[in-house]
Specification:
Layout lengths: L15 H4 L5 H18 L9 H25 L3 E6 L4 E3 L6 E3 L5 E6 L2 E2 L2 E2 L3 E4 L8 E7 L2 E7 L6 E6 L1
Antiparallel strand pairs: 1-2, 1-7, 2-3, 4-8, 5-6, 8-9, 9-10
């Protein structure tokens, strides 16, 4: 009797060592969920300051309020006052009631006339029908940056000037 060689086929054999290598999708999702939860807890605790561009935006908004009051005074042939409340960091339009509120990390200093049109001026910039105004300077600063919003007393013109 002749001997027939026996052939053993190894089909479908799974190498258990290679199946355990790497991460499963559920493990990756769990790690990402833990990182997201930690970020949600930590990020609100980080102080967010006003950026230089945002500070410039506040200065331009302030200038827009002053310009609107200046133009309204000339158009309506009357006096209009812009109220500058430096301690509360707010500038209020006398013509349309618009208010620019500034964040707490911005320092507001107002250099305004003591008297305007033979009356005490206090914390206002008065705009006249003639185009003149009481004038003044509103300085908006934060560490490392600052802007001055200047109102010319003769022309009532408003300009924004960066301060080093």
């Amino acid at each position: 009797m002749e001997r027939v060689p026996r052939v053993i086929l190894r089909v479908g054999r799974v190498d258990l060592a290679s199946a355990r290598d790497g991460f499963t999708l559920i493990e990756v999702i769990c790690v990402l969920a833990i990182i997201a939860m930690l970020a949600a807890i930590v990020l609100p605790a980080i102080p967010h300051g006003t950026s230089r561009s945002r500070l410039e935006g506040y200065a331009l908004q302030t200038a827009a309020v002053l310009n609107a009051d200046h133009n309204a005074a000339r158009r309506q042939h009357t006096e209009i006052a812009t109220i500058v409340d430096a301690p509360l960091r707010a500038i209020r339009s006398g013509s349309n009631g618009r208010v620019v509120r500034l964040p707490s990390d911005i320092t507001v200093e107002a250099m305004l006339a003591e008297r305007c049109n033979q009356r005490p001026a206090g914390s206002i910039i008065q705009h006249f029908a003639s185009g003149m105004s009481c004038g003044g300077v509103i300085a908006l600063t934060r560490p490392g940056a600052g802007y001055q919003v200047r109102v010319n007393w003769l022309t009532g013109g408003v300009e924004v000037v960066p301060v080093n």
